[in-house]
Write a structure and sequence with these properties.
By secondary structure, this protein is an alpha/beta fold. Helices cover about 40% and strands about 15% of the residues. The chain contains 12 helices and 14 strands. It has helices at about 15-25, 30-50, 60-70, 85-100, 115-125, 145-155, 205-215, 225-230, 240-255, 260-280, 305-315, 340-355; strands at about 5, 55-60, 80-85, 100-105, 130-135, 135-140, 145, 160-165, 185, 200-205, 295, 315, 320, 330-335. The strands form 4 sheets. A 7-stranded mixed sheet has the order 2-10-9-8-5-3-4, sandwiched between helices. The chain has a 3-stranded antiparallel sheet with strand order 11-14-13, covered by helices on one side. The protein has a two-stranded parallel sheet with strand order 1-12. Helix 2 (about 30-50) crosses helix 9 (about 240-255), helix 9 (about 240-255) packs across helix 10 and helix 10 packs parallel to helix 12. The radius of gyration is 20 Å and the shape is globular. The protein binds pyridoxal-5'-phosphate.
Length: about 350
């Protein structure tokens, strides 16, 4: 079988040691043995989020935690500012709409990062806004946002700042507490090197004040139910035991490397990928590229879906564009278990394929 180079922005490859940890016989969750895993995970997640707040873990893909951040903080008829510069910005707006929250959109050109002054202006014009929803990395455009500057602005108001850091966490620099982020969201299938199925919300004191007042319907994702048990390393429902055990292993691997070294490695790999693509004559799509995933413009002469298909036949799996970017870009992830050696191989195969198909870029 051809070796598979899975380079999509989630799921990402699972390193052997982590797969082995998850392959062991399952244990029961109301046992001291399992609670040790939970305790280690809670402690180490804080180091990745760079926060003193607890990090709540849910059994869902990332979107579950996005929805949780809305239903736990807001009430029907509340106003929220939502930065929309891609597919995932649209998703926050859709969740707000589904729950009867009024959305004040900040529409950003796809591939650009929002100018933080626009958040300031939106909050001035909408002083009743309870929350600002944005991203660390908008995965659909591979763009990193200036969360630090947005955090400075939101901190001066009564609104909370909710950041979907699902794809950026571990790859792009992120400091929940220093940057005044009130809810930071993560997901398992990106830099955490485990399969999809876990999502995370770290919640600040300021956000907890809103949680107390929120009246949107919630049950499974009710922050209060999780928070009550987290100090005892317990969980309100049956957790995704196997994934949590895999996460414990993944986090211990990250801690051994050091969180900052882990992030710096992503920076170097991202730079390597960008340079390689530029040398092939391709243009990087976003104006402020993320270190989690790279999006490349595709010249009009190239049939993107055909190129992606040819690469897939050789075991190299890149992601195409979503929404309005379909056919216009392709994306190469370099997060978590995607290592330099594999990136070099996959990019080499891209180079060969472009040559074989007589594509001059
Ligand atoms: C992957 C991702 C999600 C999560 O999507 P799911 O399919 O629900 O896991 C959310 N936001 C961003 C920015 C992502 O990259």
């Amino acid at each position: 079988m051809t070796k598979q180079y899975l380079m999509t922005p989630g799921p990402t490859p699972i390193p052997e040691k982590i797969a082995e940890a998850m392959a062991k016989p399952i244990i029961h969750h109301r046992t001291p043995q399992y609670m040790e895993f939970t305790k280690a995970v809670n402690g180490n997640l804080k180091k990745i989020f760079k926060t003193a707040n607890n990090v709540l873990t849910f059994t869902s893909s990332g979107t579950g935690a996005m929805e949780a951040s809305v239903v736990n903080t807001l009430s029907k008829g509340d106003t929220a500012v939502v930065v929309i510069g891609g597919k995932f910005g649209e998703r926050f707006a859709e969740i707000c709409n589904a729950y009867g929250v009024n959305v004040v959109p900040i529409d950003v050109e796809w591939g650009a990062a929002p100018d933080p002054s626009r958040v300031e202006k939106a909050l001035k014009e909408n002083p009743d806004a309870k929350a600002v929803f944005t991203h660390l990395c908008e995965t659909s455009t591979a763009t990193v946002y200036d969360v630090k500057s947005i955090g400075n602005i939101v901190a001066k108001t009564d609104a909370i700042l909710v950041v979907d850091a699902i794809s950026g966490l571990g790859s792009d620099e992120f400091e929940m507490d220093k940057w005044n982020v009130d809810i930071a969201i993560g997901g398992s299938q990106k830099a955490f090197m485990i399969p999809p199925g876990l999502s995370f919300c770290a919640v600040s004191k300021k956000a907890w004040e809103l949680v107390k007042k929120s009246t949107l319907p919630k049950y499974y994702f009710d922050f209060k139910k999780y928070d009550k048990l987290i100090e005892k390393s317990d969980n309100p429902w049956t957790p995704a035991i196997t994934l949590v055990i895999g996460l414990e292993k993944a986090l211990s691997i990250i801690m051994a490397e050091g969180v900052d070294n882990f992030i710096k490695r992503h920076m170097r790999d991202a730079e390597f990928v960008r340079q390689y693509l530029k040398e092939l004559g391709l243009e990087i799509f976003p104006k402020s590229p993320s270190d989690a995933v790279t999006a490349t413009k595709v010249p009009k002469e190239i049939d993107t879906s055909k190129l992606i298909k040819s690469l897939k036949a050789k075991g190299v799996i890149f992601a195409g564009g979503q929404g309005e970017l379909k056919g216009k870009i392709f994306r190469i992830a370099h997060m978590g278990g995607i290592n330099r050696e594999d990136l070099e191989r996959a990019l080499g195969i891209l180079k060969e394929t472009l040559k074989e198909e007589n594509i001059k870029v």
